[in-house]
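Example record used in the benchmark description.
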Amino acid sequence: MTAIDQSRTVAVVGTGTMGQGIAQVALAAGHPVRLYDAVPGRAAEAAKTIGARLDRLVEKGRMDAPERDAARARLHPAADLAELADAALVVEAVLEQLKIKQELFTALEELVADDCLLATNTSSLSVTAIAGALKHPGRFVGLHFFNPAPLLPLVEVVSGFATDEASATRAWATAAAWGKTPVRCADLPGFIVNRIARPFYAEAFAVYEERGADPATIDAVLRESGGFQMDPFELTDLIGQDVNEAVTRSVWESFFQNEKFTPSLPQRRLVEAGLLGRKSGRGWYDYAEGAVRPEPHTAEPADAPEYVIAAGDLGAAAELLDLIRESGITVRQEGEDIGNRLVLPSGGQLGLADGQMSGEFRDVVFFDLALDYRAATRIALSASPDTPERTVLEATGLFQALGKEVSVIGDVPGMIVARTVAMLVDAAADAVAKGVATEDDIDTAMRLGVNYPLGPLEWSRRLPQGWAYELLQELDLRYPGGRYAPSVALFQHSLAGDAKGAAE
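Model output (C-alpha coordinates):
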Protein backbone atom coordinates (compact mmCIF):
# COMPACT_ATOMS: atom_id res chain seq x y z
CA MET A 1 0.00 0.00 0.00
CA THR A 2 1.44 3.36 -1.03
CA ALA A 3 1.22 6.73 0.68
CA ILE A 4 -1.68 9.07 0.07
CA ASP A 5 -1.01 10.97 -3.12
CA GLN A 6 0.35 14.46 -2.70
CA SER A 7 -2.52 15.89 -4.73
CA ARG A 8 -5.15 14.59 -2.28
CA THR A 9 -6.56 16.77 0.49
CA VAL A 10 -5.58 16.27 4.12
CA ALA A 11 -8.04 17.63 6.67
CA VAL A 12 -7.15 18.52 10.24
CA VAL A 13 -9.86 18.90 12.86
CA GLY A 14 -8.86 20.88 15.92
CA THR A 15 -6.66 23.96 15.60
CA GLY A 16 -4.68 24.00 18.82
CA THR A 17 -0.91 23.60 18.93
CA MET A 18 -0.95 20.01 17.71
CA GLY A 19 -3.56 20.59 15.02
CA GLN A 20 -1.64 23.53 13.61
CA GLY A 21 1.60 21.55 13.69
CA ILE A 22 0.11 18.56 11.86
CA ALA A 23 -1.43 20.86 9.26
CA GLN A 24 1.96 22.50 8.70
CA VAL A 25 3.60 19.09 8.22
CA ALA A 26 0.99 18.08 5.61
CA LEU A 27 1.39 21.42 3.85
CA ALA A 28 5.16 21.05 3.72
CA ALA A 29 4.65 17.63 2.13
CA GLY A 30 2.70 19.28 -0.70
CA HIS A 31 -0.91 18.42 0.19
CA PRO A 32 -3.90 20.72 0.00
CA VAL A 33 -4.94 21.15 3.65
CA ARG A 34 -8.31 22.05 5.16
CA LEU A 35 -8.52 23.21 8.75
CA TYR A 36 -11.70 22.86 10.79
CA ASP A 37 -12.55 23.82 14.35
CA ALA A 38 -15.93 23.64 16.07
CA VAL A 39 -15.42 27.14 17.45
CA PRO A 40 -16.31 29.67 14.72
CA GLY A 41 -13.38 31.72 13.46
CA ARG A 42 -10.64 29.57 15.01
CA ALA A 43 -9.77 27.77 11.79
CA ALA A 44 -9.19 31.10 10.03
CA GLU A 45 -7.04 32.32 12.94
CA ALA A 46 -5.03 29.09 12.84
CA ALA A 47 -4.46 29.51 9.10
CA LYS A 48 -3.03 32.98 9.73
CA THR A 49 -0.77 31.60 12.46
CA ILE A 50 0.53 28.87 10.17
CA GLY A 51 1.12 31.47 7.46
CA ALA A 52 3.18 33.51 9.91
CA ARG A 53 5.25 30.43 10.74
CA LEU A 54 5.92 29.92 7.04
CA ASP A 55 7.08 33.54 6.84
CA ARG A 56 9.57 32.88 9.63
CA LEU A 57 10.88 29.82 7.81
CA VAL A 58 11.53 32.01 4.76
CA GLU A 59 13.30 34.59 6.94
CA LYS A 60 15.54 31.84 8.34
CA GLY A 61 16.32 30.46 4.91
CA ARG A 62 14.56 27.16 5.54
CA MET A 63 11.96 27.74 2.83
CA ASP A 64 11.98 29.87 -0.29
CA ALA A 65 9.28 32.48 -0.95
CA PRO A 66 7.62 30.72 -3.93
CA GLU A 67 7.34 27.52 -1.86
CA ARG A 68 5.73 29.49 0.96
CA ASP A 69 3.27 31.16 -1.41
CA ALA A 70 2.31 27.79 -2.87
CA ALA A 71 1.78 26.33 0.61
CA ARG A 72 -0.41 29.27 1.62
CA ALA A 73 -2.50 28.78 -1.49
CA ARG A 74 -3.12 25.15 -0.51
CA LEU A 75 -4.28 26.01 3.03
CA HIS A 76 -8.02 26.54 3.46
CA PRO A 77 -9.97 27.10 6.68
CA ALA A 78 -13.34 25.33 6.67
CA ALA A 79 -16.45 26.83 8.24
CA ASP A 80 -18.41 23.59 8.14
CA LEU A 81 -17.49 19.95 8.63
CA ALA A 82 -19.07 19.13 5.27
CA GLU A 83 -16.21 20.98 3.54
CA LEU A 84 -13.95 18.05 4.46
CA ALA A 85 -15.90 15.60 2.30
CA ASP A 86 -13.19 15.24 -0.37
CA ALA A 87 -10.36 14.53 2.08
CA ALA A 88 -8.21 11.42 1.65
CA LEU A 89 -7.08 11.66 5.28
CA VAL A 90 -8.66 13.34 8.28
CA VAL A 91 -6.52 13.77 11.39
CA GLU A 92 -8.25 14.77 14.60
CA ALA A 93 -6.54 16.77 17.36
CA VAL A 94 -9.43 17.85 19.58
CA LEU A 95 -10.05 17.54 23.32
CA GLU A 96 -8.97 14.26 24.95
CA GLN A 97 -12.53 13.19 25.68
CA LEU A 98 -13.80 9.91 24.29
CA LYS A 99 -17.38 11.05 23.66
CA ILE A 100 -16.29 14.17 21.74
CA LYS A 101 -13.98 12.16 19.50
CA GLN A 102 -16.55 9.44 18.86
CA GLU A 103 -19.21 12.00 17.89
CA LEU A 104 -16.75 13.74 15.56
CA PHE A 105 -15.77 10.58 13.70
CA THR A 106 -19.35 9.33 13.53
CA ALA A 107 -20.22 12.56 11.71
CA LEU A 108 -17.14 12.37 9.47
CA GLU A 109 -17.92 8.80 8.49
CA GLU A 110 -21.14 9.99 6.86
CA LEU A 111 -19.33 12.70 4.87
CA VAL A 112 -16.06 11.32 3.53
CA ALA A 113 -15.45 8.75 0.81
CA ASP A 114 -15.01 5.06 1.60
CA ASP A 115 -11.26 5.22 0.92
CA CYS A 116 -10.64 8.12 3.30
CA LEU A 117 -8.38 7.27 6.24
CA LEU A 118 -9.62 8.49 9.61
CA ALA A 119 -6.92 9.14 12.22
CA THR A 120 -6.71 10.35 15.80
CA ASN A 121 -3.73 12.08 17.36
CA THR A 122 -4.75 10.95 20.84
CA SER A 123 -1.95 10.29 23.30
CA SER A 124 -4.01 8.81 26.12
CA LEU A 125 -7.29 7.36 24.85
CA SER A 126 -7.84 3.96 23.30
CA VAL A 127 -7.86 3.99 19.50
CA THR A 128 -10.08 0.92 19.65
CA ALA A 129 -12.60 2.69 21.89
CA ILE A 130 -12.80 5.75 19.63
CA ALA A 131 -13.33 3.53 16.60
CA GLY A 132 -15.94 1.51 18.47
CA ALA A 133 -18.63 4.01 17.50
CA LEU A 134 -17.94 3.64 13.76
CA LYS A 135 -19.70 1.49 11.19
CA HIS A 136 -16.38 0.81 9.43
CA PRO A 137 -13.62 0.88 12.07
CA GLY A 138 -11.14 -0.85 9.75
CA ARG A 139 -10.03 2.47 8.23
CA PHE A 140 -9.45 4.07 11.61
CA VAL A 141 -5.90 4.43 12.93
CA GLY A 142 -3.89 6.35 15.47
CA LEU A 143 -1.36 8.88 14.14
CA HIS A 144 0.35 10.15 17.27
CA PHE A 145 2.63 13.09 16.46
CA PHE A 146 4.95 14.62 19.05
CA ASN A 147 5.02 18.30 19.90
CA PRO A 148 6.20 20.37 18.08
CA ALA A 149 5.02 18.28 15.14
CA PRO A 150 6.95 20.20 12.43
CA LEU A 151 10.25 19.57 14.26
CA LEU A 152 10.03 16.18 15.98
CA PRO A 153 10.40 13.25 13.57
CA LEU A 154 8.57 10.51 15.45
CA VAL A 155 5.02 9.39 14.63
CA GLU A 156 3.45 6.42 16.40
CA VAL A 157 1.14 4.59 13.99
CA VAL A 158 -1.34 2.82 16.24
CA SER A 159 -3.50 -0.09 15.12
CA GLY A 160 -6.74 -0.46 17.03
CA PHE A 161 -8.34 -3.87 17.55
CA ALA A 162 -10.39 -3.46 14.35
CA THR A 163 -7.88 -1.51 12.22
CA ASP A 164 -7.24 -3.12 8.83
CA GLU A 165 -3.61 -3.92 8.11
CA ALA A 166 -3.89 -2.04 4.81
CA SER A 167 -5.03 1.11 6.65
CA ALA A 168 -2.13 0.97 9.11
CA THR A 169 0.34 0.36 6.30
CA ARG A 170 -1.02 3.30 4.28
CA ALA A 171 -0.85 5.56 7.33
CA TRP A 172 2.76 4.47 7.97
CA ALA A 173 3.72 5.09 4.34
CA THR A 174 2.09 8.53 4.40
CA ALA A 175 3.94 9.58 7.56
CA ALA A 176 7.20 8.39 5.99
CA ALA A 177 6.44 10.35 2.79
CA TRP A 178 5.99 13.43 4.97
CA GLY A 179 9.59 13.06 6.13
CA LYS A 180 8.69 11.58 9.50
CA THR A 181 10.00 8.42 11.16
CA PRO A 182 6.92 6.27 11.78
CA VAL A 183 6.86 3.30 14.13
CA ARG A 184 4.11 0.69 14.33
CA CYS A 185 2.48 -0.15 17.64
CA ALA A 186 -0.57 -1.87 19.08
CA ASP A 187 -3.37 -0.06 20.87
CA LEU A 188 -2.24 -0.64 24.45
CA PRO A 189 -2.14 2.07 27.15
CA GLY A 190 0.52 4.70 26.51
CA PHE A 191 1.41 3.21 23.11
CA ILE A 192 5.23 3.07 23.07
CA VAL A 193 6.69 6.30 24.41
CA ASN A 194 4.16 7.25 27.09
CA ARG A 195 4.19 3.68 28.39
CA ILE A 196 7.92 3.02 28.51
CA ALA A 197 8.97 6.53 29.62
CA ARG A 198 7.08 6.39 32.92
CA PRO A 199 10.07 5.06 34.97
CA PHE A 200 12.28 7.91 33.77
CA TYR A 201 10.11 10.30 35.74
CA ALA A 202 8.93 7.93 38.45
CA GLU A 203 12.36 6.80 39.65
CA ALA A 204 13.69 10.35 39.86
CA PHE A 205 10.64 11.40 41.86
CA ALA A 206 10.99 8.33 44.11
CA VAL A 207 14.65 9.13 44.92
CA TYR A 208 13.55 12.67 45.77
CA GLU A 209 10.66 11.43 47.92
CA GLU A 210 13.06 9.18 49.84
CA ARG A 211 15.25 12.24 50.47
CA GLY A 212 18.07 10.56 48.57
CA ALA A 213 18.94 13.72 46.65
CA ASP A 214 17.49 17.06 45.59
CA PRO A 215 16.07 17.69 42.07
CA ALA A 216 19.14 19.56 40.81
CA THR A 217 21.45 16.70 41.83
CA ILE A 218 19.20 13.99 40.39
CA ASP A 219 18.90 15.89 37.11
CA ALA A 220 22.67 16.41 36.94
CA VAL A 221 23.45 12.73 37.57
CA LEU A 222 21.02 11.54 34.89
CA ARG A 223 22.40 14.07 32.43
CA GLU A 224 26.14 13.93 33.18
CA SER A 225 26.41 10.24 34.04
CA GLY A 226 23.38 8.67 32.35
CA GLY A 227 23.71 10.66 29.13
CA PHE A 228 20.07 11.80 29.09
CA GLN A 229 19.82 15.16 27.36
CA MET A 230 16.67 16.27 29.17
CA ASP A 231 16.31 15.60 32.88
CA PRO A 232 13.07 14.51 34.60
CA PHE A 233 12.58 17.52 36.86
CA GLU A 234 13.55 20.05 34.20
CA LEU A 235 11.58 18.21 31.51
CA THR A 236 8.35 17.91 33.49
CA ASP A 237 8.59 21.63 34.30
CA LEU A 238 8.79 22.23 30.55
CA ILE A 239 5.94 19.85 29.69
CA GLY A 240 3.79 21.09 32.56
CA GLN A 241 3.39 19.18 35.82
CA ASP A 242 -0.36 18.93 35.24
CA VAL A 243 0.12 17.44 31.76
CA ASN A 244 2.83 14.98 32.77
CA GLU A 245 0.95 13.87 35.89
CA ALA A 246 -2.26 13.43 33.90
CA VAL A 247 -0.51 11.14 31.39
CA THR A 248 1.00 9.10 34.23
CA ARG A 249 -2.40 8.83 35.93
CA SER A 250 -4.08 7.85 32.64
CA VAL A 251 -1.58 5.05 32.01
CA TRP A 252 -1.87 3.89 35.65
CA GLU A 253 -5.65 3.76 35.49
CA SER A 254 -5.61 2.08 32.06
CA PHE A 255 -3.46 -0.68 33.55
CA PHE A 256 -5.98 -1.13 36.39
CA GLN A 257 -3.78 0.80 38.84
CA ASN A 258 -0.77 -1.44 38.29
CA GLU A 259 1.90 -0.69 40.90
CA LYS A 260 4.55 -0.16 38.22
CA PHE A 261 2.75 2.97 36.97
CA THR A 262 1.78 4.53 40.32
CA PRO A 263 1.81 8.36 40.11
CA SER A 264 4.12 10.42 42.30
CA LEU A 265 2.70 12.04 45.43
CA PRO A 266 5.21 14.95 45.39
CA GLN A 267 4.24 15.68 41.78
CA ARG A 268 0.54 15.57 42.74
CA ARG A 269 1.24 18.14 45.45
CA LEU A 270 2.87 20.44 42.88
CA VAL A 271 -0.22 20.21 40.69
CA GLU A 272 -2.55 20.84 43.63
CA ALA A 273 -0.50 23.91 44.56
CA GLY A 274 -0.65 25.26 41.01
CA LEU A 275 3.12 24.96 40.62
CA LEU A 276 2.97 23.67 37.07
CA GLY A 277 6.46 24.51 35.86
CA ARG A 278 7.59 27.13 33.39
CA LYS A 279 4.06 28.15 32.38
CA SER A 280 3.17 29.09 35.97
CA GLY A 281 6.59 30.49 36.85
CA ARG A 282 7.47 27.74 39.30
CA GLY A 283 7.49 23.96 39.48
CA TRP A 284 10.36 21.86 40.72
CA TYR A 285 12.44 24.94 39.93
CA ASP A 286 11.73 28.66 40.27
CA TYR A 287 11.47 30.53 36.94
CA ALA A 288 10.78 33.99 38.36
CA GLU A 289 12.95 36.80 37.03
CA GLY A 290 16.20 36.84 38.96
CA ALA A 291 15.67 33.41 40.52
CA VAL A 292 18.90 31.49 41.06
CA ARG A 293 18.95 27.95 39.66
CA PRO A 294 20.07 25.52 42.39
CA GLU A 295 23.37 23.75 41.82
CA PRO A 296 23.76 19.98 42.15
CA HIS A 297 25.50 18.71 45.24
CA THR A 298 29.19 18.37 44.40
CA ALA A 299 31.75 16.94 46.83
CA GLU A 300 34.76 18.94 47.94
CA PRO A 301 38.18 17.84 46.58
CA ALA A 302 39.58 14.71 48.24
CA ASP A 303 42.90 12.90 47.97
CA ALA A 304 43.04 10.05 45.47
CA PRO A 305 44.06 6.63 46.78
CA GLU A 306 47.50 5.37 45.69
CA TYR A 307 46.04 2.05 44.59
CA VAL A 308 42.89 -0.06 44.40
CA ILE A 309 42.52 -3.82 44.45
CA ALA A 310 40.34 -5.39 41.76
CA ALA A 311 39.45 -9.02 42.30
CA GLY A 312 36.70 -9.03 39.67
CA ASP A 313 36.07 -7.18 36.40
CA LEU A 314 33.44 -4.67 37.69
CA GLY A 315 30.83 -6.03 35.26
CA ALA A 316 28.94 -3.15 33.64
CA ALA A 317 31.66 -0.77 34.87
CA ALA A 318 34.62 -2.80 33.57
CA GLU A 319 36.00 0.15 31.56
CA LEU A 320 36.73 1.95 34.85
CA LEU A 321 39.79 -0.20 35.40
CA ASP A 322 41.49 1.24 32.31
CA LEU A 323 40.54 4.78 33.35
CA ILE A 324 42.00 4.21 36.81
CA ARG A 325 45.27 2.94 35.36
CA GLU A 326 45.43 5.87 32.94
CA SER A 327 45.07 8.29 35.87
CA GLY A 328 48.25 6.91 37.44
CA ILE A 329 46.54 4.97 40.21
CA THR A 330 47.80 1.40 40.55
CA VAL A 331 45.29 -1.39 40.01
CA ARG A 332 46.25 -4.59 41.82
CA GLN A 333 44.66 -7.78 40.57
CA GLU A 334 44.68 -10.03 43.61
CA GLY A 335 42.54 -11.78 46.18
CA GLU A 336 39.29 -13.68 45.86
CA ASP A 337 36.54 -12.47 43.54
CA ILE A 338 34.22 -10.14 45.43
CA GLY A 339 32.01 -9.35 42.46
CA ASN A 340 31.61 -5.86 41.00
CA ARG A 341 33.69 -4.16 43.70
CA LEU A 342 37.07 -2.59 44.30
CA VAL A 343 38.97 -2.70 47.60
CA LEU A 344 40.31 0.66 48.74
CA PRO A 345 43.54 1.13 50.76
CA SER A 346 41.58 1.58 53.99
CA GLY A 347 39.94 -1.80 53.49
CA GLY A 348 36.58 -0.34 52.48
CA GLN A 349 34.91 -1.49 49.29
CA LEU A 350 33.58 0.45 46.30
CA GLY A 351 30.87 -1.33 44.33
CA LEU A 352 28.67 -0.75 41.31
CA ALA A 353 25.05 -0.09 42.28
CA ASP A 354 23.26 -3.44 42.36
CA GLY A 355 20.07 -2.75 44.29
CA GLN A 356 21.59 -3.31 47.73
CA MET A 357 22.15 -0.59 50.33
CA SER A 358 25.39 0.66 51.82
CA GLY A 359 23.88 0.31 55.29
CA GLU A 360 23.60 -3.45 54.84
CA PHE A 361 27.40 -3.72 54.96
CA ARG A 362 30.05 -2.61 57.39
CA ASP A 363 32.17 -0.60 54.97
CA VAL A 364 30.83 -0.30 51.40
CA VAL A 365 30.22 2.72 49.15
CA PHE A 366 28.25 2.22 45.93
CA PHE A 367 28.75 4.15 42.68
CA ASP A 368 26.14 4.64 39.98
CA LEU A 369 25.87 3.28 36.46
CA ALA A 370 27.09 5.49 33.60
CA LEU A 371 26.28 5.35 29.91
CA ASP A 372 29.98 5.78 29.18
CA TYR A 373 32.39 6.07 32.12
CA ARG A 374 35.04 7.71 29.96
CA ALA A 375 32.67 10.44 28.73
CA ALA A 376 30.75 10.89 32.00
CA THR A 377 31.51 14.14 33.80
CA ARG A 378 29.75 13.29 37.06
CA ILE A 379 29.45 10.14 39.16
CA ALA A 380 27.10 9.60 42.08
CA LEU A 381 28.21 7.78 45.23
CA SER A 382 25.83 6.31 47.80
CA ALA A 383 26.74 5.83 51.46
CA SER A 384 24.87 5.26 54.70
CA PRO A 385 25.29 7.47 57.79
CA ASP A 386 27.35 4.62 59.32
CA THR A 387 29.79 4.28 56.41
CA PRO A 388 33.30 5.30 57.58
CA GLU A 389 34.16 8.78 56.31
CA ARG A 390 37.59 7.61 55.12
CA THR A 391 35.92 5.20 52.67
CA VAL A 392 33.68 7.93 51.28
CA LEU A 393 36.67 10.27 50.89
CA GLU A 394 38.79 7.61 49.18
CA ALA A 395 35.96 6.80 46.77
CA THR A 396 35.41 10.50 46.11
CA GLY A 397 39.10 11.13 45.48
CA LEU A 398 39.29 8.15 43.13
CA PHE A 399 36.59 9.47 40.80
CA GLN A 400 37.87 13.02 41.04
CA ALA A 401 41.26 11.72 39.88
CA LEU A 402 39.44 10.42 36.80
CA GLY A 403 38.22 13.95 36.06
CA LYS A 404 34.68 13.49 37.39
CA GLU A 405 32.54 15.68 39.58
CA VAL A 406 31.21 13.61 42.48
CA SER A 407 27.74 13.80 44.01
CA VAL A 408 27.28 11.90 47.28
CA ILE A 409 23.63 10.94 47.69
CA GLY A 410 21.70 9.09 50.39
CA ASP A 411 21.62 5.35 50.86
CA VAL A 412 19.16 4.65 48.04
CA PRO A 413 18.88 1.10 46.63
CA GLY A 414 19.83 1.11 42.95
CA MET A 415 20.86 4.77 43.18
CA ILE A 416 19.68 6.98 40.27
CA VAL A 417 20.86 5.95 36.79
CA ALA A 418 21.03 2.22 37.53
CA ARG A 419 17.47 1.85 38.82
CA THR A 420 16.11 4.11 36.05
CA VAL A 421 17.82 2.13 33.28
CA ALA A 422 16.79 -1.21 34.79
CA MET A 423 13.14 -0.11 34.91
CA LEU A 424 13.28 1.22 31.34
CA VAL A 425 14.78 -2.05 30.14
CA ASP A 426 12.09 -4.03 31.95
CA ALA A 427 9.29 -1.86 30.55
CA ALA A 428 10.66 -2.24 27.02
CA ALA A 429 11.13 -6.01 27.30
CA ASP A 430 7.60 -6.38 28.65
CA ALA A 431 6.21 -4.26 25.80
CA VAL A 432 7.92 -6.43 23.18
CA ALA A 433 6.65 -9.61 24.83
CA LYS A 434 3.08 -8.27 24.86
CA GLY A 435 3.13 -7.25 21.22
CA VAL A 436 3.16 -3.50 21.68
CA ALA A 437 5.93 -3.05 19.09
CA THR A 438 9.14 -4.58 17.82
CA GLU A 439 12.48 -4.07 19.56
CA ASP A 440 13.69 -1.80 16.75
CA ASP A 441 10.56 0.35 16.79
CA ILE A 442 10.68 0.69 20.58
CA ASP A 443 14.32 1.79 20.55
CA THR A 444 13.64 4.20 17.66
CA ALA A 445 10.62 5.66 19.45
CA MET A 446 12.49 6.26 22.69
CA ARG A 447 15.45 7.88 20.96
CA LEU A 448 13.37 10.16 18.75
CA GLY A 449 10.31 10.70 20.94
CA VAL A 450 12.04 11.55 24.22
CA ASN A 451 15.66 11.93 23.06
CA TYR A 452 17.18 9.08 25.07
CA PRO A 453 20.88 8.48 24.35
CA LEU A 454 20.13 4.83 23.55
CA GLY A 455 16.98 2.82 23.15
CA PRO A 456 16.42 0.74 26.32
CA LEU A 457 16.83 -2.56 24.51
CA GLU A 458 20.05 -1.43 22.86
CA TRP A 459 21.29 -0.30 26.28
CA SER A 460 20.37 -3.70 27.68
CA ARG A 461 22.46 -5.43 25.03
CA ARG A 462 25.48 -3.40 26.15
CA LEU A 463 25.08 -4.53 29.75
CA PRO A 464 26.00 -7.94 31.16
CA GLN A 465 23.43 -10.69 30.66
CA GLY A 466 20.80 -10.52 33.39
CA TRP A 467 22.05 -7.21 34.85
CA ALA A 468 18.66 -5.47 34.87
CA TYR A 469 16.85 -8.57 36.12
CA GLU A 470 19.23 -9.07 39.05
CA LEU A 471 19.09 -5.39 40.06
CA LEU A 472 15.29 -5.38 39.99
CA GLN A 473 15.18 -8.56 42.07
CA GLU A 474 17.19 -6.75 44.75
CA LEU A 475 14.93 -3.70 44.55
CA ASP A 476 11.85 -5.93 44.80
CA LEU A 477 13.18 -7.33 48.09
CA ARG A 478 13.60 -3.84 49.51
CA TYR A 479 10.39 -2.37 48.06
CA PRO A 480 7.89 -5.24 48.22
CA GLY A 481 4.57 -4.69 46.51
CA GLY A 482 5.26 -5.35 42.85
CA ARG A 483 6.61 -2.07 41.51
CA TYR A 484 10.08 -3.49 40.97
CA ALA A 485 9.14 -7.12 40.32
CA PRO A 486 10.92 -7.98 37.04
CA SER A 487 8.68 -9.02 34.18
CA VAL A 488 8.55 -12.56 32.85
CA ALA A 489 10.11 -11.24 29.63
CA LEU A 490 13.12 -9.91 31.54
CA PHE A 491 13.40 -13.21 33.43
CA GLN A 492 13.45 -15.09 30.13
CA HIS A 493 16.09 -12.72 28.79
CA SER A 494 18.25 -13.31 31.88
CA LEU A 495 18.11 -17.06 31.23
CA ALA A 496 19.10 -16.77 27.56
CA GLY A 497 22.84 -16.65 28.24
CA ASP A 498 22.71 -19.63 30.60
CA ALA A 499 20.65 -21.64 28.13
CA LYS A 500 23.10 -20.86 25.33
CA GLY A 501 26.04 -21.88 27.49
CA ALA A 502 24.36 -25.15 28.45
CA ALA A 503 23.61 -25.95 24.81
CA GLU A 504 27.21 -25.40 23.84
